[in-house]
Design a protein that fits this description.
Arc Repressor Mutant, subunit A, about 100 residues, 5 helices
Length: about 100
């Protein structure tokens, strides 16, 4: 990454992302579409509820398509810290989503 300019931070609301989420409705029934849309809404809601540090790291990693190294440099931490934050964020999401009714 030598000589490259760091990317500016941007905040994107998950409600904005959910409107842009690819749905692939052509190959699904209406019932499957509704269930998938509900699952996406649940996921986005839970991501928004994460503590800011984890939410920000997760969002930047997935939506800015940064590597662990780029994200570590941006946040001024080690690659191991980025790995730990992403692992913790994913674990929190799994636990929160598992507690929701109807989730298997």
């Amino acid at each position: 990454m030598t000589g490259s300019k760091p990317k500016e931070r941007t905040q994107v609301s998950f409600s904005t992302l959910s409107r842009q989420w690819p749905t692939g409705r052509d190959s699904r029934t209406e019932n499957q579409s509704a269930e998938t849309d509900d699952d996406i809404a649940d996921l986005l809601s839970e991501v928004e509820a994460l503590p800011q540090l984890y939410r920000e790291t997760l969002m930047i990693y997935y939506y800015e398509d940064m590597t662990y190294q780029e994200l570590a440099a941006m946040q001024g931490v080690s690659v191991a810290t980025i790995n730990a934050r992403l692992t913790k964020a994913r674990k929190m999401l799994r636990e929160r989503l598992a507690r929701q009714p109807g989730v298997k």
